Amino acid sequence: MTMSDKTHHHDGAMRAMTDDGAFRVVTVRTTDTVQRMLELQGHTGDNAKRLGELLTGAVLVRETMAPDYRLQALLRSPDNRYRLVADSHPDGGSRGLLTQVEREMKPERTQFSLKGSTLEIVRTLYSGDLHRGVVEVPDGGGMSEALMSYLQGSEQVASMLSVACVLGPDQRVIAAGGYLVQLLPEVGRGPLAIMAERLSDFRDISELLAKTDAAPSPLLDEILYGMPFTRLSEHSLSWKCRCSTVRVMSSLATLSKADLSELIEDGKPIELSCDFCGQTYNISAPQLAGLMEQS
Questions:
Q1: What is the DSSP letter of 144?
Q2: What is the pTM assigned to this prediction?
Q3: Of 215, 239, 263, at which residue does a domain stop?
Q4: What is the residue range of 254's domain?
Q5: What whole-number distance in Å separates Cα of residue 254 and Cα of residue 105?
């Protein structure tokens, strides 16, 4: 009997450290977050898996590098026609989006390929400045390899990482999650060799996630089996969009007075939709006139 037969877990992140100070580990469950995102946007197949993996990776990197700040990840196709976006916030809320230049083509008809793609990650530093890093996806590598390449090349952080999004025949998310093991300065050759050998069995964690309902605690126990460690923190994760009428109005306020005047003279309400969640906002002419008065 597997854990998934009886228990449904909730999305969350768990952070731990080995007692010898050699490794810091973060494990996450993002199943419900990814499912909600895919339901809203209707992606299937490889596109759905890639977007789920990118969102999971964004959460892992934020939890490791900037747990108290926002982090965004952007994956671009070689021709820049397709973009996968993940947006993760310190309150545990995350969202994602697949966009493409040719709007008349449905995303599910053309599956996104990682070959030749670039990964860009932008995160807020403690000083308030932005740190931006861009890496190419390694030849033959997947999302996990791309994220590790970013951490090594842009953050100079030695780490081992794996993310996965498992879809069922009905395209629902069976499990989504992952882990990140960060090598700390205190790591010695012995523990490093043991960890490297152990994680060779966890490069593809799809089966393990499906078996355990992607719960962070069992994944942590598997990775650190036989190693004394201490759980440091645990908190929930969820899908959360950031759109609102205020944000829409703030965006319209950036238009020129000439553009606003033209919209007001038309007299018809403006209908705008959020790409992330599909929420529709109707902005009336009087509301636009109020922006004119404020500018």
A1: H
A2: 0.89
A3: 239
A4: 245-294
A5: 30
